[in-house]
Amino acid sequence: MSGYLRLGVNIDHVATIRNARGGPHPDPVRAAHIAEAAGADGITIHLREDRRHIRDGDLDAVRNATRLPINLEMAVTEEMQAIATVFRPYAVCLVPERREERTTEGGLNVAGMHNRVAPIVTALRAAGSRVSLFIEPDPVQIAVAEVLGAPVVELHTGRYAELWLEGGAEAAGPELERLKFAAADARRRGIEPHAGHGLTFDNVGPVAAITELAELNIGHFLIGEAIFIGLDAAIGEMRRRMDIARGAAVAG
Predict the structure, then answer these.
(1) Is residue 107 situated within a structural domain?
(2) Is the pLDDT confidence value at 227 over 90?
(3) How many domains does the chain have?
(4) Residue 1 lies in a domain
(5) 47 found inside a domain
(6) Is the pLDDT confidence value at 102 over 80?
(7) What is the mean pLDDT of the segment spanning 179-202?
(8) Per-residue pLDDT band at 68 (split at 50, 70, 90)
(9) For the chain, which terminus, N or C, has the lower number of CB atoms within 10 Å?
């Protein structure tokens, strides 16, 4: 395990704002440029079935705009599989998706969807993408991820973030322990664990201190904070807080 914790910046909500008004502004390509200059280690984009975030035409535009690896989030569908096998991003993260949801509401139930997920994992890996499964921090889901041959899992931190809002670090403590156990379990199985969803300046420290984690993917909070302090400053501050927490954990 490395002491360095990577930061993937999700720029979806730049596209969401653009789509709300129509026209080309704000441009997610510009957000990718800024993220790279500000210290991001990767760019995450979610091509949803309803195209409410990134659109098909943004895929190549974003990739051509940055040297950073692209992590494409997508639903477990034949349409998305076909797009991803042509686009061939560095990484593909399979996520649950419902049309009526405002945001991703939980992890992908790979245990219950094994027969649907398995051929897509195989096809994406054959196309050269590093496949990640966005799952709850649950031993059963991690065990199935191993069976599926996924090299990466991204642990859903949404419940942790909700509990933090309700009662701070103490309230979120039990969920933090679940995340720690899941990250360690993934490592034991030879899977690289990532984490993301709902992470902010306030709550990122304890998660960043989980030394088994290799990467955090953060989007909505950074784009929202950019309204007040700018995207480069928001990413820089998140990077700083992650580094402090990880540095203290490694030293301790």
Answers:
(1) yes
(2) yes
(3) 1
(4) no
(5) yes
(6) no
(7) 98
(8) very high
(9) C
Q: What is the pLDDT of residue 106?
A: 81
Q: Is residue 220 annotated as a catalytic residue, yes or no?
A: no
Q: Which residue has the tokens 């942790």?
A: 160
Per residue, the 3-state secondary structure of 144-176, as one string, reads: HHHHHCCCEEEEECHHHHHHHHHHHHHHHHHHH
CATH number of 121's domain: 3.20.20.70
Q: Which of these is catalytic: 46, 53, 156, 194? A: 46
Adjacent-strand bridge partners of 49 = none
Domain assignment of residue 49, yes or no:
yes
Catalytic residue among 53, 197, 215, 225: 197
Q: Looking at residue 97, what is its pLDDT? A: 78
Whether 13 is catalytic: no
Q: Is 77 exposed, middle or buried (0-12, 13-18, 19+ CB in 10 A)?
A: middle
Q: Please give the residue range of the domain that contains residue 44.
A: 6-251
Active-site option among 36, 53, 73, 97? 73
Mean model confidence pLDDT for the chain: 95
